[in-house]
Amino acid sequence: MGLRGPGAKTLKERPLLSEGPGLRPPQAWDDPKLSRADKVIVFCEELTVTSGPDAFKKLVLRPWQKRFIKQVYRTESDGSRPVRTAILSMGRKNGKTQLAAALALAHLCGPEVESRGEIYSCANDRFQSSKIFFEMCALIRNHPVLADQCNVISHRKEIQDLLSGSVYTALSKEAKTKMGLSPSFVVYDELGQTDGRELYDAMDSALGGRKEPLLLVISTQAADDFAPLSELIDYGQKVEQGEIKDPTFHLTFYTAPMELDPWSKKTWRLANPALDDFRSLADVKRLAAQAKRMPARENAFRNLILNQRVSAEARFLEPSAWRACAEEAKIPVGARVFAGLDLGSTRDLTALVLVYPNPLDGIFHVRPYFWIPGNLRERGDEERVPYEAWAKQGYIMPIGVSTDPKVIAHKIAELNGQNKIISLAFDRWRMAEVKRELDDIGCSVTLQPHGQGYKDMSAAVNVVERLVVQQKLRHGNHPVLSMCANNAIVTRDPTGARKFDKAKSVGRIDGMVAMAMALAIATVYKPVDIGALIG
Known about the structure:
7-stranded mixed beta sheet
């Protein structure tokens, strides 16, 4: 019977299999003197590179790749491998597909093979999922033993090991079902770029059916703290730091800290272990030069090349421009002010921002107030934000288990007593409850609804941008407001109008929304004279 595989050879044409079921000549990686990790390394280096400048040469693992393999495939005294989840995160184009394909083959038909194993590569779409499959096919085709040992079924993206009965399959999140699987090895390619976690969770939960399963994730960082990969990296860092004891988890993480110069070659090397090797230095220089000239590309460079946890979307404000406005805000007692309120839902951040436009010099002074419900330590751990420390320093106020409109109303009344609030702009969400509380305590403040769509927010966004660029804003470097400013992303409609986009922003931006609304109404106010503002 014919088999569909490399060269479409029949069983009789496979001399290694014709010697008998389960038989093949001993290979270099079978040497019993080798450690388990060394067997994997030897297996990988028996493969032949099939593309690029090293095409048709033996694969030579770099020291950083060998170090990763030794850490993942280390063994206990009884020879068992403790690691069950391994994360390798680095910048793009550092040879992850080739390494992933080689390790998948090690489990399919190499030193890590087991009887009737199930090997899967996972990705976010069909095209991405096929890349490791095609790389595995190329490696098999150029190795005589593996070419006889394996059978490729291209239309199913499947490879069979005819000796062990193990099967490899390429999966994507579009796969109709992931249930009923019992994986012995899973490699997830670019988990950081997924917009859901169904496939990852399905594969992770299926590992229990094997004695020594391994889930390997190779990816650049995700854009936000809530992505599955971000959770894994944060967990791995706690394991490395000794906060959590978990010998089953390994993290190898190449990233450039945010505070370093993004245009420095030394910084690039931190996130790209293959730089100036099979990761082109000239290409990184080209991308850096473009990102430096075009600010809209900087975040993509930071995320994809420097492996930093930032959205590839362009940030609304450059950190340097925001820091240039960090002088202390000065609002004289009795001065007339404007306010913006972004009232959070039951568990969200609430922001109230006062704005004082000094008519003498045209400087806008900003003073924010923040509230957050729930357990501050737990919320801080979830969002990787120091809410508990900020609360102790007075930058944010706990508000119980859920947002209480009465607390917000009393604060508005208190501030109105100190500085007459000429007008307070608000998002309509739950504002009726705040208004009722203000009426109950007899606080009379002019309330001005402010839409959150492109039509109403575009002018507010423009005002914030103009005042920051012109350095006519003073925010005192309030840490919560600065966090919101750093997170903010804006989107455009077909007419070019802009608004803040909470869905695309990399974290909470409520303070920026409240400040923008307050600045919008402050800049259109026309006082009769200076005395109307300075009391």
